[in-house]
Amino acid sequence: MGTGATRTDVVVVGAGPTGLALGIDLARRGVDALVVERGERLAPGSRGKGFQPRTMEVFEDLGVLDAVLAAGGTYPAAVVWRDGRKLGEHRMFDPVEEGEPHSRFTAPWMVPQWRTTRILYARLTELGGRVAFGREAAGVDQDADGVTVRFAAGAPVRARYAVAADGGRSALRRALGIGMTGETVDPDPVLVADVRVEGLSREFWHLFPPPEDARAPEGPEGAGGRAGSRRGFLAICPLAGTDDFQLVAQFPGADNLDPSLEGIRAVVGERTHLAPESVTEVGWSSDFRPRAALADRFRSGRVLLAGDAAHVHSPAGGQGLNTSVQDAYNLGWKLAAVLTGAAPEALLDTYEEERRPVAAHILALSTAIHRDQARRGAATRQLGLGYWESSLAVETRDAPGAVRAGDRVPDVQVDGVRLHASLAGPRWTLLAVGTRAPRTPEGVRVLSCPPVEPFGTGLYLIRPDGYVGWTGTGPEGLDAYAARVGAGVGR
């Protein structure tokens, strides 16, 4: 390693939503972390544009919820067009059903990804975090004491741990030789662009199916469906909080797509009732082939994979970006606990143990939605995801109630206050429901309340990421569990 190497505790490669969210979580815990980004600035474009209720809860805890709410809006109803006629409206998301987990958020919230990254970047810098732009990762070396990330230009960065959050073509994952197992979800290439369009109402998500199918398919963010209904599909969705629309178009059998203004005008003129000149501007465009892939491992020594570097989704159902942010939320507290010496390094093994099965489950779900084999609803809201099979889920009660170890903590009202508001901040919390709270390790917050549904009674040690870690009817085993996971660490 050169003598000019930058030193830090954690180097996060990639300043997309995953890397920035992780940077925020580490910064608020006092961890010295550096986010590096190959681009000279934050990435433009809408890309992923929807946040599920569980991710909104994460954003609340990370301190960016108000900004996210101000920057976006609800999803509009979809309207299907044929030959300039409206064929009817189509609801893209199933309503909340009775029995779904308690949350103040009940539906997806739309924010163009370029706005999301700006919000996260502002929060990171507010907390004293750093992003180094123009740093393209070229390789990684590691030893017993740390990891060194090398770059195409400039000095390397030496850290105790590195996190690859550098997307589906992750340079770090490839350097480590970690493979990805997956499949092509749809052979047809897709063009996505942020455009200005005249003559379309911003009250609706406009769907233009191919001539042989006038239904409203599930597809990639409204552009897809069964194999026989994907020919030439086009969707134009108003991007909340902006004057732009997101255009999504499929091109069966095409090898080269034309992302220029003239190319997009031609598509709009051919597939809609609008004149080509109704598209007045193209602000950003990209193309891709929908695929689903899962990294064979999420950890190699001192390097961990997160976000698209670990799992690549079809955009159908808005699952990839949400799963990625939640990777960061799972990993942040564990890195902090290990770096401070409060927990053994083995704690980091639980990141892959917990997040890889979740990613595999969500990949199957988003693929099924793309192929019109499943609908958007309770599963896509991600409130029901948990870590029940994790080694960190310790249930000591003989008769567990409705809330058990591994569950996401429901956001119920306790003495007139939302429980999630009381749990806010990077700390462990012991919730004593209808029972006396025992002595707890220093730094563990204690909340006591009378019996409340769906908890019933008992002791619940709640992780910093809002999941139940340990439960019991008495304190037996609490101290041993707390020592194992670093509970009580103030950062």
UniProtKB/TrEMBL annotation:
Residues 7-364 form the FAD-binding domain. Residues 208-228 are annotated as: Disordered. Its cofactor is FAD. One of its GO terms (molecular function) is monooxygenase activity. InterPro entries: FAD-bd, FAD/NAD-bd_sf, RIFMO-like. Keywords: FAD, Flavoprotein, Monooxygenase, Oxidoreductase. It comes from the Bacteria. This is Pentachlorophenol monooxygenase.
